[in-house]
Structure formats: structure tokens, C-alpha cells
């Protein structure tokens, strides 16, 4: 069918989205979702996330629905599925279709390997907050995203620099919430979205990593962990 953007455009068209409609999207995301809606002449309506899963929060979606809402895009963030059961019930109540987006077709073995790596890291990392998984959900760990405690972005960025200096690749998964990006510049305050963009860091969890690679990630992170504890 083409790129993920093409697939989303197709699904939104199937849902009946037309120019002038509103499409509810998360702001803690890459820009693709909002830009697809915009390319169809629709207005992206940005909503906050569930702080545990980084996926769009159903309560925030519920509050954002209006008479112009034509679709809700549920992005499966970093491989964690959005709460589709709750969102589907919400969509049914408002008579608005829900479109899932963000799960990539991948070999089962690669997903299983990442999940094993994530379990290893979560059981051993200290000084960072490992990603929780909603009960009953299956996390694919396209990214292994932790929160760095402390003073938000300055501490997170300093920690990332120290990891890279010690040979551990890491990246900030969402530098700027989409609603504050140059293309939109919306005057919104989405508290959990802002907090996640300041605190989160993606650590390596690739399927081809070895146990030694994982041990190095743990050793380096835990060696720096004391620097991350907030002052008493």
C-alpha cells in the first residue's frame, strides 16, 4: 500500500474524512500523523497522552471531540498499543471512527528478541524509570523509552551526553511536541506531553544486540544513576 503515511491517508479517507473536518491526533508523536490530516484539508486537534504508555489518553480524546470530529487517530507509540477497546467504545458513543496507526509489520522473531532485551533491561536498570506495559497489552518495543528523573530536559540531555561519551547510543524520541512545531505553533498546554518530551530517552534495544551489548547499557546507565537522583 506504500508508506505509513499513505496507509494512514487511505484509512482516514475510508473513515470519511473530508476537507474542513477535524481529526484528533496525539501531539507526542512524529509530525507525520498531523501532516496527513492536514494534507487532506482536515484540521488536526492535538490531545494529551497517558503518561504510562505514551499513547493518546482516552479521557483527553473524549474532551476533544466536537461536532466536526471525523476521526480519531490512535497512534501505537514506540510499539505499545493504544487502548483500542476504550477508544473504540468512546468512538462508538460519539459515532466517530477510530483509526489505529504506528504498528509496523515485522518478523515475529525480531519482536520477540526486542521484548527479551526489554525485559533484561527493565529488570536491571537503576536511576531511570523503565517503560511500563499496560496489563494485557503486548509491547513490541520498537523503541525502549525510559524517563530520566531530575530537572527535566537539562538533566535528561546531560545524561544522554554522558551515555554517548561512554559509547552507548541513545536518542530523544520526541524533541518537540507536534503542536509546538513550526508547522502548527498551537497555543496549548498538554502537561503529560510536555513532561514526556522533557524527560524521555530511547535506549538501544535492537534485535541484533548481544547480551554483552545489553550488559554494557546497564553498566553505563547504572554507573551514572547516582547523578540522576533528585536532591533531598
Automatic annotation (TrEMBL):
One of its GO terms (biological process) is polysaccharide biosynthetic process. Gene3D superfamilies: Aspartate Aminotransferase, domain 1, Type I PLP-dependent aspartate aminotransferase-like (Major domain). Keywords: Aminotransferase, Pyridoxal phosphate, Transferase. The keyword Transferase applies. Its cofactor is pyridoxal 5'-phosphate. GO terms for molecular function: pyridoxal phosphate binding; transaminase activity. PANTHER family: DTDP-4-AMINO-4,6-DIDEOXYGALACTOSE TRANSAMINASE, TRANSAMINASE. Belongs to the DegT/DnrJ/EryC1 family. L-glutamine:2-deoxy-scyllo-inosose/scyllo-inosose aminotransferase subfamily. This is dTDP-4-amino-4,6-dideoxygalactose transaminase.
Amino acid at each position: 500500500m506504500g508508506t505509513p503515511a499513505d496507509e494512514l491517508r487511505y484509512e482516514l479517507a475510508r473513515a470519511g474524512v473530508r476537507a474542513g473536518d477535524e481529526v484528533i491526533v496525539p501531539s507526542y508523536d512524529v509530525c507525520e500523523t498531523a501532516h496527513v490530516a492536514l494534507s487532506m484539508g482536515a484540521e488536526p486537534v492535538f490531545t494529551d497522552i497517558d503518561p504510562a504508555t505514551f499513547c493518546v489518553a482516552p479521557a483527553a480524546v473524549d474532551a476533544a471531540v466536537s461536532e466536526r470530529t471525523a476521526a480519531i487517530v490512535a497512534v501505537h507509540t514506540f510499539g505499545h498499543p493504544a487502548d483500542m477497546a476504550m477508544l473504540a467504545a468512546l468512538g462508538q458513543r460519539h459515532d466517530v471512527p477510530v483509526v489505529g496507526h504506528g504498528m509496523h509489520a515485522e518478523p515475529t522473531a525480531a519482536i520477540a528478541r526486542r521484548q527479551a532485551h526489554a525485559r533484561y533491561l527493565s529488570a536491571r536498570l537503576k536511576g531511570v524509570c523503565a517503560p511500563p506495559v499496560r496489563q494485557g497489552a503486548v509491547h513490541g518495543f520498537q523503541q525502549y523509552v525510559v524517563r530520566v528523573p531530575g530537572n527535566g530536559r537539562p538533566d535528561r540531555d546531560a545524561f544522554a551526553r554522558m551515555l554517548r561519551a561512554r559509547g552507548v547510543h541513545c536518542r530523544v524520541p520526541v524533541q518537540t511536541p507536534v503542536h509546538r512545531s513550526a508547522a502548527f505553533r498551537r497555543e496549548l498546554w498538554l502537561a503529560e506531553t510536555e513532561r514526556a518530551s522533557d524527560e524521555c530517552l530511547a535506549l538501544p534495544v535492537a534485535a541484533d544486540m548481544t547480551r554483552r551489548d545489553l550488559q554494557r547499557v546497564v553498566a553505563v546507565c547504572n554507573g551514572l544513576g547516582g547523578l540522576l537522583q533528585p536532591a533531598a
